[in-house]
């Protein structure tokens, strides 16, 4: 019990500064940078626009729950589907807070490079593949969405935004998002700490020798735990010694791209066929990339 409490508390305390910083920066972006401004920085076509979309995460740290409605709005305004999807998938992965928290958790530049560069490359591949798949079926949007003026991080409706000062909006949005992120993170830390304490090391070693099984397990955990990308590295670090870098990399890349809560939000905006296809493409691409890392014997 004491060991579990120490692991659980250390996970939460280590991640708190990054969760708070991420929530505050995200609230500033939400209030002061509109979708029109983002659109002006994204060329409407060409491979160059996809590269720019993948790099925007370095300067636009937007939370996962907020990125889906923004991506949909960009598509509605004429931004190519591939570009909007690359933007949606890469921004939560490669922002500076995620980079800092990942390095702090692993103390390894290799893991950071795999997550950042790998995340950008895979997001571009996924965006291009999706644009090819749905080229003949452009009607991907639902007519209305229960999240049209809301998001899981506590974003308020537009009318409410217009009645309040920007400073107050930043504080309210930041506090609500911090509490929302913290809720998911504490839940993930709770499960992860129990897993680490209860599962015997011999069992984990056996799993680590089962070929593709560790990758499947970590991808499933990433999807179900729905952790914030600014703090998930601290949980992933606990699995590193048992599952290895390729499986942990799958966890670090898949989670910010698509988790359970994002799948629900995505399905509220887009038709079910699009949502299922996107989840499938993300899963396949991330799995193949992790398998390649495993075959290469990549370590920390």
TrEMBL record:
<feature type="transmembrane region" description="Helical">
    <location>
        <begin position="82"/>
        <end position="106"/>
    </location>
</feature>
<keyword id="KW-1133">Transmembrane helix</keyword>
<keyword id="KW-0472">Membrane</keyword>
<dbReference type="InterPro" id="IPR005524">
    <property type="entry name" value="DUF318"/>
</dbReference>
<dbReference type="Pfam" id="PF03773">
    <property type="entry name" value="ArsP_1"/>
</dbReference>
<dbReference type="GO" id="GO:0005886">
    <property type="term" value="C:plasma membrane"/>
</dbReference>
<comment type="similarity">
    <text>Belongs to the UPF0718 family.</text>
</comment>
<keyword id="KW-1003">Cell membrane</keyword>
<protein>
    <submittedName>
        <fullName>Permease</fullName>
    </submittedName>
</protein>
<feature type="transmembrane region" description="Helical">
    <location>
        <begin position="278"/>
        <end position="298"/>
    </location>
</feature>
<feature type="transmembrane region" description="Helical">
    <location>
        <begin position="12"/>
        <end position="33"/>
    </location>
</feature>
<feature type="transmembrane region" description="Helical">
    <location>
        <begin position="239"/>
        <end position="258"/>
    </location>
</feature>
<feature type="transmembrane region" description="Helical">
    <location>
        <begin position="211"/>
        <end position="227"/>
    </location>
</feature>
<feature type="transmembrane region" description="Helical">
    <location>
        <begin position="112"/>
        <end position="134"/>
    </location>
</feature>
<feature type="transmembrane region" description="Helical">
    <location>
        <begin position="45"/>
        <end position="70"/>
    </location>
</feature>
<keyword id="KW-0812">Transmembrane</keyword>
<feature type="transmembrane region" description="Helical">
    <location>
        <begin position="181"/>
        <end position="199"/>
    </location>
</feature>
<dbReference type="InterPro" id="IPR052923">
    <property type="entry name" value="UPF0718"/>
</dbReference>
């Amino acid at each position: 019990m004491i060991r579990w409490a120490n692991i659980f508390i250390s996970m939460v305390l280590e991640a708190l500064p990054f969760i708070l910083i991420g929530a505050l920066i995200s609230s500033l972006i939400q209030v002061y940078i509109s979708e029109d401004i983002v659109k002006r920085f994204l060329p409407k076509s060409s491979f160059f626009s996809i590269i720019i979309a993948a790099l925007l995460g370095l300067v636009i740290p937007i939370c996962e729950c907020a990125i889906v409605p923004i991506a949909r709005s960009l598509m509605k305004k004429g931004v190519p589907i591939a570009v909007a999807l690359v933007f949606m998938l890469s921004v939560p992965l490669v922002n500076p807070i995620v980079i800092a928290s990942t390095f702090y958790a692993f103390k390894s530049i290799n893991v950071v490079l795999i997550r950042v560069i790998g995340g950008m490359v895979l997001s571009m591949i996924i965006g291009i593949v999706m644009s090819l798949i749905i080229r003949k079926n452009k009607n991907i949007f639902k007519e209305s969405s229960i999240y049209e003026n809301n998001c899981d991080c506590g974003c308020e409706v537009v009318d409410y935004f217009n009645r309040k000062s920007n400073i107050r909006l930043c504080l309210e949005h930041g506090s609500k998002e911090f509490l929302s992120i913290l809720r998911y993170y504490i839940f993930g830390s709770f499960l992860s700490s129990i897993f680490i304490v209860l599962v015997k090391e011999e069992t984990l070693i056996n799993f680590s020798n089962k070929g593709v099984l560790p990758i499947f397990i970590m991808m499933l955990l990433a999807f179900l735990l729905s952790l914030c990308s600014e703090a998930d590295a601290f949980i992933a670090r606990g699995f590193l010694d048992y599952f290895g870098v390729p499986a942990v990399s799958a966890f670090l890349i898949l989670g910010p791209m698509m988790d359970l809560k994002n799948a629900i939000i995505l399905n509220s905006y887009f038709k079910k066929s699009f949502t299922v296809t996107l989840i499938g493409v993300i899963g396949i691409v991330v799995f193949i990339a992790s398998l390649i890392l495993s075959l290469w014997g990549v370590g920390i």
